[in-house]
Amino acid sequence: MLHAAGRPTPIGPIEIHVRNGKTYAKITDDRPDEPRHRPHIDVETEIEIRNNELKWDKSNPTGHGVVFLSRAGYVFCYVQPGGV
User: Fold this and answer.
1) For position 83, what pLDDT does the model report?
2) Rounded to an integer, what distance in angstroms lies between the CA atom of residue 34 and that of residue 15?
3) Residue 3: is its pLDDT beyond 90?
4) Is the peptide bond before 13 cis (omega within 30 degrees of 0)?
5) Which of 32, 36, 57, 83 is least enclosed by beta carbons within 10 angstroms?
6) What are the tens digits of pLDDT across the range 8-30?
7) Order of strands, edge to edge, in the sheet holding 9-19?
8) Contacts from 21-28 at CB under 8 Å and sequence distance 24+?
9) Three-state DSSP class for 17?
C-alpha cells in the first residue's frame, strides 16, 4: 500500500470507534481505488489503531480522518479530522 515514492498510503475517509479501551478505524470510502493509486480495502473493514499510532498534534484539514497504511497493512498513524 505504498505510493511509488515509498510513502504510506492514506486510506480515508473513515469512522473511528472505541470499544473496550481500543480504537478502531472503519473504512467508509467507497470511491474507486484505481484513480487514487491505492489497494482495495472493503468498506466496513475495521483496523485497530494502537494508542501510539494516534496523531494528536496535527489534523487533516479536509475534515476527514485518515489512516496511513504500509503495503503489508501496518498502521503508521491515524490523523484525526480537523477544520480548514
Assistant:
1) 63
2) 22
3) no
4) yes
5) 57
6) 778 877 888 999 999 999 989 89
7) 46-49, 22-27, 9-19, 65-69, 75-81, 54-60
8) 22/48, 23/48, 23/49, 23/50, 23/51, 23/54, 23/78, 24/48, 24/49, 25/49, 25/65, 25/67, 25/78
9) strand
